[in-house]
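Q&A log
Question type: sequence-to-structure
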Amino acid sequence: MQAYVLPKGVMFSILILTILLMTSGVVLLFYTTVSHPAELRSQATATVRSLQTASTNSTVTAQAQTTTIAQGQARAVATSLAQATIQAQATTTAQQAIYTQATSGTPLLTSTLAEQGTANWDTYSAQEGGGCSFSDGAFHAAILGKGFYLSCFAQGKALADLTNFALEVQLNPIQGDAGGVIFRANDQTHTSYMFRLTHDGYFSLDARTDPSHGTALAYEKNPLVSFAPGKKLTLTIIAQGSNIYLYINKQLVGSVNDTTYSTGKIGFFASDTTNPTEMAFSNLRVWKL
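Response status: OK
Response body:
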């Protein structure tokens, strides 16, 4: 059988076609195994980065909003505190103005209480022991009977019916349980207001309806109330209409609005709850308002 030899041109064409097919395969293999996966990875990375950027932007925005809210709340709190401080300062200033105005005029009465004067104070001995007396440069109210209190009134005409007034006196709690000042009092019916201080650091304002009963209009523990031996306390009462202001050492400790009593006498008292009690009063001043 005779062999057939292809012409050179045909063989060359076949060779070229073979090379092209091989090249296409290599290119396809490179695309499917290297290039395309790289593109996919690049796209995935870009997507992740885009999501991360969006998340970061959201976080930053949320943080900015939270910071703005917190700053707004802080400013609101600061403003509220500032307003409260201003109001407190205004109240303190007004209260101090009441004290200054009430005690700046010429007193109706000035007395050291070392001796009897125009006030004409009660002086007597109590059956339970003690009494109302002048001694050691002061006026003393003392009661030695447990469960009793003793009152000492000014009977002078000028002080008989005080309505609007300011009163200031020094109290030396020598011993015992309680004592203080009586005002707008009727010593016949035993009705009065009582500004009372106790040995355990309390003060009160009571509207007394008889020797044994009354209503507490104010009652509070206060560090200014101290019964230390030899320590004098300056008590001030300002009564004008239904408004009553109470001061200890020239600092306001309480105020009430009450219409129970409108006029009456002034006096001092000592109260023996469980222990013999003696209170000494000195340097009294009374202003008519």
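Response note: Residues 109-288 form a domain with the Jelly Rolls fold (CATH 2.60.120.560).
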